[in-house]
Amino acid sequence: MELDRSADGRFVIEHAGTKAVFDYWNAIRNGHRAAPRDAIDPCALRSHLPQIFILQKHDDEHITFRLAGTGLCAIFGREFRDQNIFSMFAGDCTETARSVIRHVMDGPHVGLLATTGYTIDKREADFEMMLLPLMDDKGTVCRILGCLFVTQGQSVLRQKVFVRQRINKGTLIDPDADRVAQDPIHQLRSNPMPRLYLIRNNG
User: I want to staple 144 with a disulfide (CB 3.0 to 4.6 A). Which of 55, 86, 126, 164 is the partner?
Assistant: First the structure.
């Protein structure tokens, strides 16, 4: 799959939750190539914590969840902490996911994925995933702040557990050069699950 780079430099973030996380990251990076990892304040993202995760790179094949919002875990019916992010995707989509993550960490860029999740009985829901680079105190991009929000299929989400995602579109955004539309298509809705909180890996 070829990654999208808009000719006019304008991108649409579909979900208001995704846009809120992007705006927060964009504000705390304060003009730098990535946001400082120590600047992340969970209180500022309280409304979105169940859908937020943080990734840590070990090598190109192993990008694992350091933090995983329990909303994310509930959608897929499993604990993601310490799991490889590539396990979320259907096999033929892992190369696209790997390419996006490489650009996010090496660019750095912002990665935006439009995906379709599948249940064991082949029911579907659409999701939007965003991947945002985080840097350490030496300026090295070392982690990724991510989020996942449902854009279509909210009713399926209330009833079913999803087992895999397919990537329909992968987009790379240069936050210094590209323009992001201000009005998301999908506004925030009530969470289809009970109030959930972030699980921390202290290792």
Answer: 55
